[in-house]
Amino acid sequence: MDAIIDKRLLAGLQDKTWLYTGAESPLLMETKWAVESYLTNRELGPDGRLLNSQEEANCKQRVAQLVNGSAENIALLSNSSEIISLIANSLQLRPGDNVVINTLEFPSGILPWLALKQEGIEIRVINHTNWEISVEDILAQVDKRTRVVMTSHVSYITGARLDYIRLYEQLKETNALLFLDATQALGVVEVDINHTDFLVCSSYKWLMSIHGLGILGINPERVTSLTPKSVGWRSVTNMFGVAESQSFDFLEDARRFEQGYPSYATIYALSSSTKLLLEIGIDRIEKHVLELGQYLIDRMAKLPYPLMTPGAAERRAGNICFACASGEEIAQALKEKSIFVWGGDGRFRVSIHFFNDKEDVDRLVGQLEQLIKGEGER
């Protein structure tokens, strides 16, 4: 269970145990150099702008390849929260329509829909049962007035992986569109845009990039007409003629949601990191992560932290969560030993990616054993 790549290819990782990718990833040296190349290209004037456009096209193509889609159906915006709000306000929901969400969603997947309640939209919230929400739980809330089901592929709270493909096949028999948050999945397990209607993902977690972009993917199979509620010069066909014509037409593809210049520094970074992910292969990354995750689960079995994440490999991805009332304190104590995990919400979360290895897990478990021993001696 060695790391897939040499840890020296990541900046500053030699003296840290980084099990924190569910929050954000460490910085690849290649990513750092990619951002530097963007800054260098700024010195080239018009030629630099051409290079920016080329890198943007490369980035969209690589993201599309990761999700088994097409580049024209990928838009790059500032963050996932912006994307969900844009789509929520573009669907033209009517009073009496309903949206299905659940209690294991990240706030960005909840707030835009709650804001629609004042317009007469019913929000149906599914409560988890023992940290589980099933496809059947979701489908039980869907009726003829359901317009959207919002769910994560992998829960940020529990690390559970939802069978969104089976969910989508059922939803295709209804009027409900599936909005899939792949932020905790894309880059570590397979994600297929052909089994959802909308896909959203952040750039700085499992995709190994930096802050500054949110990825929007649109599957045109059922999403045939969607008019944004906001507009910018990059989202229209006739940007230089709008003053004279006093009219405009949205672009036909996902670019209709891109209003202005994106974060090109992040585009260079994401283009570089997705190139690496494709070269390694998501299937290889997933195999490594699931095997190392099982090793972690086995090592943690003797410690007094109940496993929240499903044990079966097909039900989890890179996040493995353990119930712990003092999760925040545990994370802080580990950070003092240069071991990074996420703590809070009644648990701590260990995130395993392709750069992690058996030694990382052993160091984590060893420090947890020391913390427990220290507590017992007080």
From TrEMBL:
This is Cysteine desulfurase. It comes from Paenibacillus nasutitermitis. PANTHER family: BLR3095 PROTEIN, CYSTEINE DESULFURASE. Gene3D superfamilies: Aspartate Aminotransferase, domain 1, Type I PLP-dependent aspartate aminotransferase-like (Major domain). One of its GO terms (molecular function) is catalytic activity. Residues 57-364 form the Aminotransferase class V domain. InterPro entries: Aminotrans_V_dom, PyrdxlP-dep_Trfase, PyrdxlP-dep_Trfase_major, PyrdxlP-dep_Trfase_small. Pfam families: Aminotran_5.
